[in-house]
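Title: [Solved] Probable glycosyltransferase At5g03795 isoform X2 3D structure

Original question kept below for reference.
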Amino acid sequence: MGVIALITVLSELCPLFSGSRNSWLLFSGKYVNDNAVFHDRDTFMNDYKEMNKSLKIYVYPHQKADPFSNVLLAVDFEPGGNYASESYFKKVLVTSHFTTKDPSNADLFFLPFSIARLRHDPRVGIDGIKDFIKSYIFNISHKYPYWNYSNGADHFYVACHSIGRFAMEKAIDVKINAIQVVCSSSYFVSAYIPHKDASLPQIWPRLGSEPNLAPYKRKKLGFFAGTINSPVREKLLEWWGNDSDIFVHFGRLERSYTEELLDSKFCLHVKGYEVNTARVADALFYGCVPVIIANHYDLPFADILDWKHFSVIVATLDIPLLKKILQGITQQEYLMLHSNVLKVRKHFQWHMSPVDFDAFYMVMYELWLRRSSLRLQ
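Solution (posted by the thread starter after getting help):
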């Protein structure tokens, strides 16, 4: 019996099978056709191979003796904390096969300053970041010819701290021309230009293997924990603060955060002061379907991954309808979302030695796409 005939028979016998060819589900929780999580899987795979072979990046060189080597060089330890994505990327990049010491071979040029480390450097601090960036661009544009060839259009920097959204205000050419790979990837942020810039996932470093709690063991419909630091979160608390199905916490949790994530079917990402939050990656890691409640958020790897197949996106105006929306998702649809969460979470992890299709390689692919568009201009 052929695969399609077998699926047809089984779909009549078991409700866990979808009627759509793009969403067939096996008892193991894996799709027969797993293309759904990608916009175009074949194109991605083909381009990914070409990227690995040919993409070259020139990193502006600095020495340990430089006054701001702590800001410009990769850290000499394993990154940690809420903004680890920024440090992980640079640490992995400088030892990768993508770098070149010959600028004439470079597709892109990396501006290696760290916004997070500038913020904590007492010589700079929050108030001095804008002047530091302005001075840095002035120096490299006079010391090297590469910036001036394109006015920075083939240059990029990486920043995870939300302060990065203000950092380029005295370096307008960076803001307008350079590729900004940032966690604060909101269309509402004037410094962020979709398609030119790219969304960097904010990911906590994690040790050990990924949890794989079965969907039927998850008892809570929805879960959120965080501080009240935005009107959106205030509205969430107003509507669902005392609900018995959607658990909204703005204070100390009775159980651990991990236990809450593992016990919930849907985990809420709710815009705070900024849209950049590690909660999306938290949800994916623990097998909880993320619910995105943040208008005009340029989701990480959105050029590659089709988020509607592994998350639920809810407009902030629809917070009063949140429970109805989540309860309206059938068990069959939820199992498909959950299955896809397990597929994509490998793309949201950092490794000291990069692993194919992990967060580092996915960011590199986003850069590859932008490098390709630059060549067409």
